[in-house]
Design brief:
Blueprint lengths: L7 E2 L1 E5 L15 H12 L5 E4 L3 H4 L8 H16 L3 E7 L2 E2 L2 E2 L17 H18 L5 E8 L17 H18 L6 E3 L3 H4 L7 H6 L4 E5 L5 H5 L4 H4 L1 H10 L9 E6 L11 H13 L4 E6 L30 H13 L3 E2 L6 E5 L18 H11 L5 E4 L6 H7 L3 E3 L1 H4 L1
Parallel strand pairs: 2-3, 2-11, 3-4, 4-7, 7-8, 9-10, 10-11, 13-14, 13-15
Antiparallel strand pairs: 1-12, 5-6
GO molecular function: hydrolase activity
Keywords: Hydrolase
InterPro entries: GH (IPR017853)
């Protein structure tokens, strides 16, 4: 018999991008500016922010974690609490909006593999533990995310990757998560990968790791990955890409009701033109909210990047729910409207009883996971079913004939890719 799990109130938030100085604001931290930014986020009716310390600024030397920087992070969390906002903190930044932020003690003359060098790993553990411990007594602290898409440092297309094996990636994640738990026991600690974990053959960070390690599965949905190029701004695959990643992740989860956090999603121009951003936002949210076991949605990002800052990819400047002057944009109004509609309501969408089986050559290594990428046979079959009005779940091919697994997830019908295309 299907256990539907405990219904959860949906969470709606934003990835906090400071209006003054972007993430470089840590260099000239101004709590009044932060408060004004958070006021504008709270005014949208959101309930949390995800924040990003810059690793080189917080830990400029392997044995120096700057107390003043940690105090500023706590001050930001307290300011958020005053406005009714919970705070999730990413630790190892890592990578943000096309820029890499690695401390000098891991690069050039001190180049060491950030996933494999024992001294680097010990330094990372202490850093994550310190941040978590500093916030452990704050009621509005949700938990740590190990870092923002740090998997991109491990493989192509990064220009200078720190190569590791799948086993090394798994051990590294386990140690980082354990450090977060040591600092703040019992909080919502997890890790986050960009979509190479789901789509790129041979990538050392895997779907199995994403869906089995940590308190929840994080997915980052960006349609500039070939989806919008192939299907257009209003194509089914584009508007349902977030829902697709949520459902794809569940195929690997051992817990049939493991929470999935749509931790990043945005409307990137010009693939999603500014005049259509609100429409894309509404459609994306509708698709995601039709997925059982969704923990919440955290939009990328809170505020536009200032045009005074140079060298960002063009799309990065306009992704905010609010302008750089804190005015609400149409996408921000759309998110606020949906958040208001769901406030106080239980989230219990209908079970997705029809599943599409995905064969990636084995769950753990997934050597053929590119079938799940835009243009791949599985991706296109799932999109075709969705366009027909079905609500397909995803099941691993090796579990498609397992009655206990299917029953636990409420799946009564399994289709195969050749049945669809």
């Amino acid at each position: 018999m299907l256990d539907e799990g405990s219904p959860r109130p949906l969470r709606f938030g934003a990835n906090y991008t400071p209006t003054r100085g972007w993430f470089h604001h840590w260099l000239d931290f101004d709590l009044d500016e932060v408060r004004a930014d958070l006021d504008s986020v709270a005014a949208l009716g959101l309930d949390h922010v995800r924040v990003f310390p810059l690793w080189p600024l917080f830990q400029p030397n392997r044995t120096l974690i700057r107390p003043r920087a940690v105090e500023q992070l706590v001050a930001l969390a307290d300011a958020a609490a005053e406005r009714g906002l919970d705070v999730a903190v990413d630790g190892l930044q890592g990578h943000l909006s096309s820029f890499d932020f690695l401390p000098a003690w891991t690069t050039t003359w001190h180049r060491r593999n950030i996933f494999g060098d024992p001294e680097v790993i010990a330094g990372q553990e202490e850093y994550l533990r310190t941040l978590a411990a500093a916030l452990a007594d704050r009621p509005n602290f949700l938990g740590m995310t190990v870092g923002n898409e740090v998997n991109q440092f491990s493989d192509a297309p990064h220009p200078s990757p720190d190569r590791i094996t799948r086993a090394q990636a798994g051990r590294w994640l386990e140690r980082m998560l354990a450090a977060c738990e040591k600092g703040a026991p019992g909080r919502f600690h997890l890790h986050a990968a960009y979509d190479a974990a789901w789509y790129q053959d041979g990538h050392p960070f895997t779907a199995a790791q994403a869906a089995r390690l940590g308190a929840a599965t994080a997915v980052h949905s960006w349609v500039f990955n070939g989806t919008a190029q192939r299907h257009g701004r209003a194509g089914t695959a584009t508007e349902h890409h977030a829902a697709y990643l949520i459902e794809l992740s569940k195929a690997w989860a051992r817990d049939p009701h493991r929470p999935v956090w749509l931790q990043e999603v945005g409307a990137p121009a010009p693939l999603i033109p500014a005049e259509h951003a609100a429409e894309f936002t509404r459609a994306t949210l509708a698709g995601a909210l039709d997925c059982p076991d969704l923990w919440g949605v955290t939009w990328w990002c809170s505020h536009d990047v200032s045009r005074e800052l140079a060298d960002f990819p063009e799309l990065e400047y306009g992704l905010g729910l609010l302008t750089n002057d804190r005015a609400v944009k149409p996408a921000g109004a759309a998110v606020a409207r949906v958040a208001g509609q769901w406030r106080g309501r239980e989230h219990r969408p209908a079970v997705r009883s029809t599943a599409l089986a995905v064969d990636v050559g084995g769950a753990d290594a997934a050597p053929r996971r590119s079938v799940c990428a835009p243009g791949g046979a599985f991706f296109e079959a799932w999109a075709a079913l969705t366009a027909q009005g079905l609500r397909p779940a995803v099941v691993l091919a090796e579990l498609a004939g397992d009655p206990a697994h299917l029953s636990a997830r409420g799946i009564t019908e399994v289709l195969r890719v050749p049945d669809v295309i």
